[in-house]
Amino acid sequence: MTLAIANVVVDCHNAAALAEFYAQLLDVPVEPAASPFFAEIGRSTGMSPVLMFIQVPDRTPGKNAVHLDFHSTQWADALERAIGLGGKHIGDFDQYGVQWVTVADPEGNLFDIGKY
């Protein structure tokens, strides 16, 4: 049996607001049924995986954290855009022959932008 990633789910406080951040970052629309409780981006565009955002008022201690890795040939522009949308530049890394920047989204979830 072969598995494929269908969705990446992000626990958050306001699903629609966080979906909007990622929709602008990736230049794809938030799906029309978005609410503070549940939102998706990428389903109507065929993006894979689809990003889903689910309201979780109290995060469970010890629960796996979501970590998204993006890549861009123009990573500096992508970093600037993320910051302009409300993200926070956390740090620059160069390990294992790979370079990337780590960014926090408006709710503090970390993601990386690889320098390709």
Brief summary of the model shown:
The protein is of the alpha/beta class.
Describe the fold and architecture:
A hairpin with an 8-residue loop joins strand 2 (38-41) and strand 3. The model has no long low-confidence stretch (mean pLDDT 88). This protein folds into 2 domains: 1-55, Signal recognition particle alu RNA binding heterodimer, srp9/1, CATH 3.30.720; 70-115, no CATH class. The protein has 116 residues and is an alpha/beta fold. The chain has 2 helices and 7 strands; from the N terminus they run βαβββαβββ. The strands form 2 sheets. The protein has a 4-stranded mixed sheet, covered by helices on one side.
Order of helices and strands: EHEEEHEEE
Shape: globular
End-to-end distance: 32 Å
Low-confidence stretches: none
Could you name the CATH topology of the largest domain? Signal recognition particle alu RNA binding heterodimer, srp9/1
Backbone CA Rg: 14 Å
Spatial strand sequence of the major β-sheet: 4-7-6-5
The tally of helices reads: 2
| Portion of residues within helices | 10-25%
CATH architecture of the largest domain: 2-Layer Sandwich
The tally of beta strands, per DSSP, is 7
Main structural class: alpha/beta
Protein name: VOC family protein
InterPro entries: Glyas_Bleomycin-R_OHBP_Dase (IPR029068), Glyoxalase_6 (IPR041581)
Organism: Nocardia coubleae
Domain Glyoxalase-like: 8-113
